[in-house]
């Protein structure tokens, strides 16, 4: 896990990489590389190297990333990004039995949105989303809403659905739970979602002057999907 011995997470990782047929491509925003508490390294430690490939950058085109372009054109490739055009992943998993490739964008929500819409390659795969049925266990980082998940959590849920194996989700989430526990024991505070803070009058930062950002916060308070 590359962490200090005092907070080592290796005992919480699977002894052997999980056997999965699905291959993940994690498209990581460069800003995520410098985050101390990022979750992608834990995800990679749970999976075989050939089943979790990480590409770092903001812009991806066919000339610089021919392998990714080929992956995006594969009919079995899915991209996990919620929206009006996205199909629930459970429906796809029921209809398909062939091994899949899944692309997941790793970054803040604004970074992920920018990367998704400014890279035409990412519009080629079938767009899928997860049902908002679980709350994030990544409590040491603030999420926009109660049902927003970290990259590791998204991958854990998606793999358990595609592989039809619930234990995969439990195994991958185990080191995340340990990470949060360690951080809370060493002074970290539980971070409620921005949605929770706004609804309960606990948001202590100045309200944005930008009308677009202010409108987004109003939608969060009123339970409108954004």
From TrEMBL:
Record family assignment: Belongs to the TDD superfamily. DTWD2 family.
Signal peptide (from-to): none
Keyword set includes ATP-binding: no
One Pfam family from the record: DTW
Protein name: tRNA-uridine aminocarboxypropyltransferase
InterPro entries: DTW, DTWD2/TAPT
EC class of the enzyme, as a word: transferase
One MF annotation (Gene Ontology) recorded for this entry: tRNA-uridine aminocarboxypropyltransferase activity
PANTHER family reported for this sequence: TRNA-URIDINE AMINOCARBOXYPROPYLTRANSFERASE 2
GO biological process, one term: tRNA processing
Coiled coil: none
Entry EC number(s): 2.5.1.25
Keyword terms, alphabetized: S-adenosyl-L-methionine, Transferase, tRNA processing
Known catalytic reactions: a uridine in tRNA + S-adenosyl-L-methionine = a 3-[(3S)-3-amino-3-carboxypropyl]uridine in tRNA + S-methyl-5'-thioadenosine + H(+)
Domain DTW: 1-188
Record SMART domains: DTW (SM01144)
